[in-house]
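Allow me, if you will, to draw on your knowledge of protein folds for a short while. I have a record of one protein: its chain in single-letter code and its fold written as discrete structure tokens. The full record is reproduced below for your convenience:
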Amino acid sequence: MVPESLTVLRKVFETNPLKIDEAKEAGRKVVGHYCLYSPMEMAVAAGAIPVSLCGTRQDAIPKAEEVLPRTLCALIKSSFGFALLDSCHYLASSDLVVADTTCDGKKKMYELLAEMKEMHLLQLPQNQDPETAGPYWEDQFERLRRRMGDKFQVAMSDEDLTRAIRLLNRERTALKNLFDLSKNARPPYTGLELMEISFKTAFLPDKEEAIKHLEALYEDGMRMVAEGRSPVAEGAMRLVMTGVPSGMGSHKVVKLAEDLGAVVVVSDNCTSYKKVTLFMDENQPPLKEMADRYLQLPCAVMSPNPGRYERLRALADEFKADGVIDLVWQGCQPFATEAYTVRNFVRDELNLPYLMLETDYSESDVAPLKLRLEAFISK
């Protein structure tokens, strides 16, 4: 049932570390990014390879807890643990790490990480007011452009930025086309497969290659839809997942829900559908366009955060949702606090069932999670 294009991507992903090494030996630079607010266009414009860095696995956390509080969220601990263990090839290969001041836990972790890696920290505004926060955020992008230009000895002109925008727009379009296949009554891919695809293509050092794989996956998906083939059972409960970023290694809730017969038709988080909403106008002044688009990303660190509710309404309608799961990592205060208003919005405005699951990366709570999901899906 697994399409050939997904099998190919899985094989290609395993060769990524070697490709990164080969690119660095040829003189390419690597820029690591910890959050969606950090503009990958900047790295592309500098001729560097952008890679994602957030930790999504449990195995790095025990080492991190020797330094960080145990009550901190799993994503922060996993990310820092990889640095302490020197076990993430992408972080080790990064010539510069770009991060931004989202939550307090990440900000303090970045102070510690700066002792191990060269970093550039973007000071993210905590509101999205275009008149006050907009110019400030654009200046942060200009500072990053100067820093990368100086470090990598490149000009990084507006034309370079526009070319980077054009390339990443193509990648986002290819990814969105793939995600949108789940609007079909029986999606050609499970939510877990789409999470895997989004996660793995983010690490491919060649953006043209990533686009090629996404387009092949889309074509295979279209054929499956036309032929009536799907890994999703007819009448399966269609779930929108919202909340914290997740990826391979932190995918247990998606797997549990789909093992119980539901399907996650869309994940509204930074590692999935939220990425494709950054499509930019290639005819506008590039630095301002980039700053404007990134600033409007909805996240619980923003106050207020109206975009999250607008997005949920649109996605629930477009993907014909039967329910919403709100995923929160233990220790993540912004998303845990915002869960109250998300719950009320989903129940009162969308008239949909809502389930908030607060968990971590470990397998210790799989049994109670399964019980709660089973009750939710069987209603």
